[in-house]
Amino acid sequence: MEQPRRTKAEIAAETREAILGAACEIIAEEGFEKIRMRMVAQRAGVSTAALHYHFDNREKLFAEALRHSFEHTGRDVYQGHADSDSATSRLARIISASLPTTASLRLEWAMYQELWCRANREPQSRALAIELSRAQQGWIEETLADGVACGEFTPCDTAAHARLISSLCDGFGVQLMFGNPSLTITEARAVIWQHAGGALGITTPFPAQDH
Question: What does the record give as the DNA-binding region (predicted)?
Answer without folding.
Answer: 36-55
